[in-house]
Amino acid sequence: xxxxxxxxxxxxxxxxxxxxxxxxxxxxxxxxxxxxxxxxxxxxxxxxxxxxxxxxxxxxxxxxxxxxxxxxxxxxxxxxxxxxxxxxxxxxxxxxxxxxxxxxxxxxxxxxxxxxxxxxxxxxxxxxxxxxxxxxxxxxxxxxxxxxxxxxxxxxxxxxxxxxxxxxxxxxxxxxxxxxxxxxxxxxxxxxxxxxxxxxxxxxxxxxxxxxxxxxxxxxxxxxxxxxxxxxxxxxxxxxxxxxxxxxxxxxxxxxxxxxxxxxxxxxxxxxxxxxxxxxxxxxxxxxxxxxxxxxxxxxxxxxxxxxxxxxxxxxxx
Length: 318
Fold this sequence. Notes:
Blueprint: H1 3-15, E1 23-29, H2 33-45, E2 49-55, H3 67-75, E3 78-81, H4 91-98, E4 102-105, H5 111-117, H6 123-138, E5 141-145, E6 151-155, E7 162-164, E8 174-176, E9 181-184, E10 192-197, E11 200-201, E12 205-206, E13 211-216, E14 219-224, H7 226-239, E15 246-252, H8 263-266, E16 272-278, E17 292-298, E18 301-304, E19 307-311, E20 314-315
Parallel strand pairs: 1-2, 1-3, 3-4, 4-8
Antiparallel strand pairs: 5-6, 5-18, 6-10, 7-9, 9-15, 10-13, 11-12, 11-17, 13-14, 15-16, 16-17, 18-19, 19-20
Helix pairs in contact: 1-2, 1-5, 3-4
């Protein structure tokens, strides 16, 4: 069995727990057909009633799929979405979960990424995700620093964190695959400071030089840093002020993931954190916009109510 087929079977059996006769929808576009076909074959092998839908690629992460795709997502019990642009932060995904579907979003996944980061049952990593989600949920204030220059504070009081364990076996569950993070929506208008993205950024890939983002009142008000900054500014201008919202803090916890320029995997790398700009309406926030862009930075130190829970990218769980 090839490594890609083995990884697809991990998804079908361990991550999604597909049962005999379950309706399984694989949603893809023209950029991810190889992975989609491997996932469909694995779902069929474990007894799923499979359907594959291929749409035109969306223009940006968070843009809604066609109405026919959205309807099919809501009618399925399992949705696997290996797409070029993310469907995670869409009404279609949220509606599918409300209807009881288990949804795995896989934006930008490649065969190499899948074989590297989905090669084993999530096990210990899932426990780390649960622990960090609990710590975030219980905290009120976050202070993040990093060697690249990040120095950012915001409130998470009253918000619930989500563990992206890769185990999506119950009705209504949602997560990314590959998995491996704990994430939360900061309280709107509370973030301030400097965010420096020195690894990668959605819609850009690996940054040519670090992106330096000035944050005031919960918004990314200024972006500097070479060609990458020009690209990011162009996207933010296209979607308006809401696209500048400090939408998410995520903590990467997958020891098999690697920085490659593809945020789906980059944001899961153990020893990184990410801040997203834009939509957070699908995981506890109040901002809805057709854009959600993750910026990944290395070796963060994260303090929750003054307590260090990650130091220079190393887990602190005492």
